[in-house]
Amino acid sequence: QVQLVESGGGLVQAGGSLRLSCAASGGIFSRYAMGWYRQAPGKERELVAAISSGDTTDYADSVKGRFTISRDNAKNTVYLQMNSLKPEDTGVYYCNVMNDSDYGELYSDYWGQGTQVTVSS
Fold first, then answer.
1. How confident is the prediction for the chain on average, in pLDDT?
2. 77-82 and 18-25 beta bridge pairing
3. Considering only CA atoms, which of 93, 92, 96, 80 is closest in space to residue 24?
4. Strand, coil or helix: 33
5. Chain mean position to CA 71
6. Parallel, antiparallel, or unpaired for β 46-51 and 3-7?
7. Rounded mean pLDDT, 96-116
8. What pLDDT is attached to residue 34?
9. Which residues contact residue 53 at a Cβ distance below 8 angstroms, ignoring those fewer than 6 apart?
10. Which of 19, 66, 67, 112 is deepest in the core (most CB within 10 A)?
């Protein structure tokens, strides 16, 4: 059973930075992609950053150039460095493990509790 524990969220002013961490357990995920998702108030959860097993990264247009995803396979951990934060980045951030060739296919339907990011203007 996969478990995902997100941390690092908080309240920050616009223009500030945060670094999120997600520790995964219950499997070996080095051959899978990992990603960060955001659910803004009243909106559906969306994938904002992904990193493949080969460390290829992909970003939503809204965060490109400001967010950086990275992973440490030895720790089964994925990170999201968020710079130049905007109020529209506010939401609950979740991580998950995905099929390396199809990010729409999750390793498991399980979602962690997420971590709240609030950006004030």
1. 96
2. antiparallel
3. 96
4. strand
5. 11
6. unpaired
7. 93
8. 97
9. 30, 31, 32, 33, 100
10. 67
Six-digit token pair at 34?
């990992």
pLDDT over threshold 90, residue 32: yes
- Compute φ and ψ for 38, nearest 5 degrees: -130, 135
CA count, 13 A, side-chain hemisphere, 32 = 21
Distance from C-alpha of 59 to C-alpha of 50, rounded to nearest angstrom: 7
pLDDT at 7 over 90: yes
Q: Is the pLDDT of residue 56 over 90?
A: yes
Amino acid identity, position 22: C
Residue type, 68: T
Q: Please provide the distance, in angstroms rounded to a whole number, between the alpha carbons at the two ends of the chain.
A: 40
Cβ burial 64-79 (10 Å sphere, 16+ → b, else e): eeebbbebeeeebbbb
